Amino acid sequence: MIKYVDLKDVSTIIKQQNSDLIESYLRIHDAGFNARKNIASFSSSELSDFYKFISQIELGQIDTTGFILGYISDTGGLREQFDVLRFSEKCILNIELKSNMPKKGVEAIERQLCRHKLYLGVLNIENVQVYTYLASENRLYWLNEKNKLASTNDFSNLEKLFQLTDFGNHELKTIDLSSMMVSPYAEPTKFFEHKYFLTETQYKAREDIINYSGKNVLIKGGPGSGKTLVLMDLAQKYQSMGKRVLLIFCGILDEYEKISQEIGIHIVPIRKIDINKIMDRNEDVILIDESQRLYQDQVDSLMKVVEKIKIFSFDMQQTLHSQEKRISVDFFEMAKQSKRFLVTELKGRVRYDPELSSFIQKFIGNKSAKVTPYQYNKVELKYCENKDTANEYVKDCTMNQGFIAIEPTEYMTKSSNVLKRKKISPYSQNVHNVVGREYDNVLVIFDDNYAYNDSGLIGTYKDYYPYLQVREIFEALTRVKRKLNILVVGNIDLYCYVQKILTWKDRVNYQQYMRETRHSKELEIINGIVKSENSTNVRKTNDDLLEIIEKIQKMSNEHGLDSRTILSKVEAMMNNN
Questions:
Q1: CA distance 443 to 424
Q2: CA 414/CA 213 separation, integer angstroms
């Protein structure tokens, strides 16, 4: 629960110059304090800087209440900390506190303020004011009307800044940053309007690449790490530098011309380009997205182009064919060992929801998955006995509920033109059609060609099928951003397997309850024995002690408890008495 701060209290606390008092005050009022890890979000030095800032204000001229310290918005993988916040009905005030100038100077200050203004804008409040106070210089920085950085050390009108949020309810408004997680192929307009912001990891990767003097770059990252976003942002950056850019998408992208127009970047799916003539093109920079899906001859053709900048985005977890997997491993090892390559890694996931991630890892890996159980409220499970009822359900989800349905990719044999793994529903997409995209609501369809063991999900399709069955499912599941539906068609064992995952948290809670119940019974037994044995001062004989042990054994058997545990506790309590 948020504890709001009064500026007068901050002044009082700091003036006492007592570290214990300051620590206690922050333990109560630090909104982002992580009790589990005992990590503070707002430090004592920041409180001192805040005091230095507000001491230059006539507090009697403003409402001093309703301030929030150290608030953290943690939506999926987008995590942002705000030093000082104050809300009102028509204005949000954010003040960042810095003791000294950041290593990257005013550029870092401007970048943070731009990011905070964008993030706070998701609340749709008309006036968002973002500032940074630099204590070492006693200087205030802010974004002006043109979103350019300005600064002053004149604090004569500072009261007006605070008065902007004097009126109305100061209650915290939850900052949901999920809308900042932009998928350029699925949301080209949002990307073009720059309704996103690179994380610090992504921004550093982009700057390292821009400043790299070589011609070959590999961006490595897992699902949801933001590879495509960084690649697209690089394309815009290079274009602003006057360079001609081509982005090659190594997958199916039927609407590539429309997306190219909306984004303002020349995008072409690899099937629409003669890769052998790539060196004859006039672009200066070639970006290759989903490059783990390149064939060996395509890799060879691209590597022969020595005059152009080539940037490959790469994820070995998302190879869907055994040949892709082999080529990807070889290509990555070559890049790592080559002096002609800059290899940069995007660690972690931006498009990340801990609940959905836990479910996906548990579903794919079963007992080998080292994840925390959740209630999985964002996951729905549906069983249909046959294809007809399943198709009706898929139709309703896709037509009326905003879901994208995904199935394993159909495969037409080259020699006999026989269709393998025919889809259950015409309303679903093949896995290969959704590579590189993310969606709010995803429905994944399972037929009877899946089973499981202790190691996780297994694909059991017996006929020739070139695609990696479990990798396909992983690709489908990791397309989701908000809500995931699992449709199981005629596979009772798999339905029960998913049910056990969805109710995993309940079983953990029940086991905890049973442990606590056993512990309570142990204490009852121990207290009874200790009281009865301490009621007399007669020295115990061996027979008496044997009788006590038998009593413990009998009672522990009746309650299903560990007699050795009870005995050790009895001994300790009797010794203490």
A1: 13
A2: 44
pLDDT < 70 regions, the chain? 75-77, 177-181, 348-352, 518-545, 547-549, 551-552, 555-556, 558-577
CATH for 354-502 is 3.40.50
Q: Which ranges in 503-541 belong to alpha helices (H)?
A: 504-534
pLDDT of residue 539: 53
Tell how many helices (H) and how many strands (E) occur in the chain. 18, 21
Task: Read off the amino acid at residue 408.
Answer: P
Domain assignments of the chain as residue spans, ordered by start = 7-178, 188-346, 354-502, 506-576
Q: Give me the CATH code for the 7-178 domain, please.
A: 3.90.1570
Which strands form 428-430's sheet, in the order they lie side by side? Answer: 379-384, 480-489, 439-446, 404-407, 428-430
Residue 393 · residue 487 · CB < 8 Å: yes
Distances in whole angstroms, Cα of residue 21 to Cα of each of 33, 51, 532: 17, 15, 48
Instruction: Check residue 86 and give its pLDDT.
Output: 93
**Phi, psi of 385, deg, nearest 5:** -80, -25
Q: For residue range 357-396, what is the model confidence (pLDDT) as tens digits?
A: 999 999 999 988 888 999 999 999 999 999 999 999 999 9
Contact 7, 19 (CB under 8 A): no
For 188-346, CATH gives 3.40.50.300
Integer Cα distance of 293 and 316 in angstroms: 9
